[in-house]
């Protein structure tokens, strides 16, 4: 199943997936307030002309981005991705007219489409969610070219982190591991009992067995409902999202944003967390995340600026995510590497042993890597 850039954001309920690392740790609500304060600081800094904004790219184009990546100045790349990177795998996004997920939920007799991801509705009526989950369950879809491009960035030693709004686990299937990922809207990879007094954890195989056999998952210990660790409307984002972004974004040399409308906060606000000099590349079917024109005239806003006379670091490449990644790989001289990685990945997914390796190091078939992909490609010639 996949998430979208419009997937459930956080609100008031207690966090259900993460425990505080120490007693002095801020709550998710305090973390979000701090994000808001950072945005205000950036606004005042821009308005008062404080700080510098060095131009890093020699050209605001995909070619300019490629030249920068090949330089020794670009060492830490962060990817921000949404549902658009998974649509070519056959997973619908949320809001596209006619084809989006919300446009095809009439058979579930919901009071409104978003109710299927509303935590209060889910606890009372879990049947629609699990029926939908069976249709779109992880494991029925394969990673896309875009997923493997991010794995290639990792193999090249350039990927700092991937921040994903998706819950389809395809980043993991493509070869990214737990430390490479911030799954901002949660994941099907694990599940928990919804009872706060129990909170027993269950793995992917356990949940898959229940969903595919049309059984509503209930806890073995207390018989309460068990929910995949995806973030519903009415729940907070994982605490790791807030702690990691503080460490990752200040050291980011290039931000690559793919397949997201940048409409849902606090995820969308990540684009303003990088330094003023950090280039930002958007690969999407349309421009997204642009600053409000009125606020821009007043000097406010940390949104994307692709077209104004003041644009100096933001590049929009309008295409599918797969085509954009192929074009960038070609400019970088990585096309053969990417083609071989995609081919090996598809073979791995089709093999009997192909499955996602768990974070505990469970034995599985080897995941795709650039080195082994190139070796397989050479052997097949």
Automatic annotation (TrEMBL):
Lineage of the organism: Eukaryota, Metazoa, Chordata, Craniata, Vertebrata
UniProt cofactor note: Binds 1 zinc ion per subunit.
Similarity field: Belongs to the sirtuin family. Class I subfamily.
Annotated Basic and acidic residues bias: 1-28
Binding-site residues, Zn(2+): 193, 198, 219, 222
Region entry Disordered, spans: 1-36, 345-381
Sites where the protein binds NAD(+): 83-87, 93-95, 165-168, 260-261, 284-286, 321
Chief location of this protein within or outside the cell: nucleus
Active site residues of this protein: 185 (proton acceptor)
Molecular-function GO terms, alphabetical: histone deacetylase activity, NAD-dependent; NAD+ binding; NAD-dependent protein demyristoylase activity; NAD-dependent protein depalmitoylase activity; zinc ion binding
Gene Ontology cellular component list: nucleus
Catalytic activity: N(6)-hexadecanoyl-L-lysyl-[protein] + NAD(+) + H2O = 2''-O-hexadecanoyl-ADP-D-ribose + nicotinamide + L-lysyl-[protein]; N(6)-acetyl-L-lysyl-[protein] + NAD(+) + H2O = 2''-O-acetyl-ADP-D-ribose + nicotinamide + L-lysyl-[protein]; N(6)-tetradecanoyl-L-lysyl-[protein] + NAD(+) + H2O = 2''-O-tetradecanoyl-ADP-D-ribose + nicotinamide + L-lysyl-[protein]
Keywords annotated in UniProt: Metal-binding, NAD, Nucleus, Transferase, Zinc
Record keyword Lyase present: no
Deacetylase sirtuin-type domain ranges (all copies): 55-335
GO biological-process terms attached to the record: regulation of developmental process; regulation of multicellular organismal process
Protein's recorded name: NAD-dependent protein deacetylase
Required co-factors: Zn(2+)
Superkingdom: Eukaryota
One protein family per Pfam: SIR2
Subcellular location: Nucleus
């Amino acid at each position: 199943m996949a998430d979208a850039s419009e997937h459930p954001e956080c609100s008031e309920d207690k966090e259900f997936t993460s425990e505080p690392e120490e007693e002095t740790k801020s709550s998710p609500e305090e973390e979000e307030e701090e994000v808001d304060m950072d945005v205000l600081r950036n606004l005042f800094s821009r308005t008062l002309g404080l700080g510098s904004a060095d131009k890093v790219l020699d050209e605001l184009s995909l070619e300019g981005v490629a030249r920068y990546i090949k330089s020794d100045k670009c060492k830490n790349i962060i990817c921000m991705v949404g549902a658009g990177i998974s649509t070519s795998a056959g997973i619908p996004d949320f809001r596209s007219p006619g084809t989006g997920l919300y446009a095809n939920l009439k058979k579930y007799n919901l009071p409104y489409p978003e109710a299927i991801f509303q935590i209060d509705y889910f606890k009372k009526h879990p049947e629609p969610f699990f029926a939908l989950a069976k249709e779109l369950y992880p494991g029925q879809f394969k990673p896309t070219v875009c997923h493997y491009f991010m794995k290639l960035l990792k193999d090249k030693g350039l990927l700092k982190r991937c921040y994903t709004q998706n819950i389809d686990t395809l980043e993991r299937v493509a070869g990214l591991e737990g430390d490479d990922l911030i799954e901002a809207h949660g994941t099907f990879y694990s599940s928990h009992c919804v009872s706060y007094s129990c909170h027993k954890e269950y793995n992917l195989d356990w949940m898959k067995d229940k969903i595919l056999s049309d059984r509503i998952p209930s806890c073995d210990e207390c018989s309460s409902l068990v929910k995949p660790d995806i973030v519903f409307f009415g729940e907070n984002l994982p605490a790791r999202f807030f702690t990691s972004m503080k460490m990752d974004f200040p050291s980011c040399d290039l931000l690559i944003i793919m397949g997201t409308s940048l409409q849902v906060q606090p995820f969308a606000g990540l684009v303003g967390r990088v330094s003023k000099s950090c280039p930002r590349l958007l690969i999407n079917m349309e421009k997204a995340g642009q600053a409000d024109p009125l606020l821009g005239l007043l000097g406010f806003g940390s949104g994307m600026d692709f077209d104004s006379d003041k644009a100096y670091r933001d590049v929009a490449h309008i295409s599918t995510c797969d085509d954009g990644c192929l074009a960038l790989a070609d400019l970088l001289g990585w096309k053969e590497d990417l083609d071989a990685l995609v081919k090996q990945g598809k073979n791995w997914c089709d093999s009997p042993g192909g499955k996602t390796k768990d974070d505990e190091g469970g034995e599985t078939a080897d995941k795709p890597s650039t080195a082994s992909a190139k070796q397989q490609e050479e052997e097949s010639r």
